[in-house]
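queue> pop job 88
queue> type: inverse folding (structure -> sequence)
queue> payload:
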């Protein structure tokens, strides 16, 4: 952490066009101490961090920029998504998981849904979170909480997952759409 703060302090000081002496005068921190900070030889107290941030005219958080740069990503090559067995799978409905990070603050799942067979009975869904449907191919009527929406390629529908929803009528097959569900911090999400 000291190295990160050292690099940020030096970067911000130079970006502001300040010499070590000018920075010392602005912050009230001695030149030798500033040198130790910029060379990661010492740890800073919160008071010192606040004085550095004030002298650089930045929030204290700017001194930690980059501390959490390691972030996850999930890449799913074409055709490699995990097949999900869900309500409707037996009637020609295919659900493919495109990505879903796990752990704290990872509250979203994306599926590619493909409907290839007509059916008189459609599965209905109800779940926590907000869902976005984006039509890629085909045409269908989709219902949510008693309302009906005729959807074709390029159409989008955002809905509250707590409302009962699902396909109502398949007009033009095959039907392909993206389903992205976002869960809040309090939902029992992915």
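queue> result:
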């Amino acid at each position: 952490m000291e190295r990160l703060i050292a690099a940020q302090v030096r970067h911000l000081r130079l970006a502001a066009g300040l010499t070590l002496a000018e920075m010392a005068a602005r912050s009230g921190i001695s030149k030798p101490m500033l040198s130790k900070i910029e060379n990661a030889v010492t740890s800073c107290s919160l008071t010192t961090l606040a004085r550095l941030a004030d002298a650089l005219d930045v929030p204290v958080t700017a001194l930690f920029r980059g501390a959490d740069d390691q972030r996850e990503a999930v890449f799913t090559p074409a055709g490699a998504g995990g097949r999900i067995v869900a309500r409707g799978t037996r009637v020609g409905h295919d659900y493919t998981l495109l990505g879903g990070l796990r752990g704290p603050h990872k509250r979203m799942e994306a599926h590619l849904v493909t409907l290839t067979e007509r059916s008189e009975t459609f599965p209905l869904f109800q779940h926590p979170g907000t869902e976005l449907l984006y039509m890629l191919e085909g045409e269908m009527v989709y219902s949510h909480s008693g309302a009906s929406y005729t959807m074709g390629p390029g159409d989008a529908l955002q809905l509250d997952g707590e409302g009962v929803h699902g396909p109502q009528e398949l007009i033009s097959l095959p039907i392909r759409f993206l389903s992205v569900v976002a869960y809040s911090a309090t939902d029992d999400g992915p």
